[in-house]
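Expect chain and fold; see below:
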Amino acid sequence: MKKLALIMLAAGNSRRFGSNKLLYPVEGIPMYQRILDKLVNAEEKLKKEKPDLCVKITVVTQYEKIAEEAEKRGAAVLFNPHPDEGISSSIRIGVMGNRDADACLFTVSDQPWIEEETILALIRLFLSGGKGMACVSFQGKLGNPCIFSSRYFGELSSLTGESGGKAVLRLHRKDAEVLKVRDGRELVDVDQPDRMVWQ
């Protein structure tokens, strides 16, 4: 594999949250920035670890503030003009903007406790495992991030509404590597302010 795209989905409307949750501070840092920082760090480590692998970060968003910060960090930015169409619209845009990649890793921006090392471990598992997909799980529940080889780009581009990559993964479960995480907090996605307190 020569090219891996790290795609951060950051275009949601945060209806249930009551405000733009991606800008909500978690331990003093905007939620989206916690994910972006981890992707940037992972990219730097991968470049040293695997110099033959081209790694590129893409942020799909509708928000100017997020776009500006992403560009400062060296990421490519793709705007989603139709976020009301659901997460599938951001996935399609991310895939379209990285058609030349051999694989795409998708992260969501409302999982503030995902660890950088988990992202790296998932990528390493995908690169060494030989399967077409990889994702994380906790106690049998599949979660994000997920990685898809280019042979699944067509199916990802056909998703609609709130159907995400896990819909494709479930159809081809035998072709997926699974990384089990020890702390379920990593996979918590924040939909409402009261979920900011981990119990």
In short: The first strand starts at residue 3 and ends at 10.
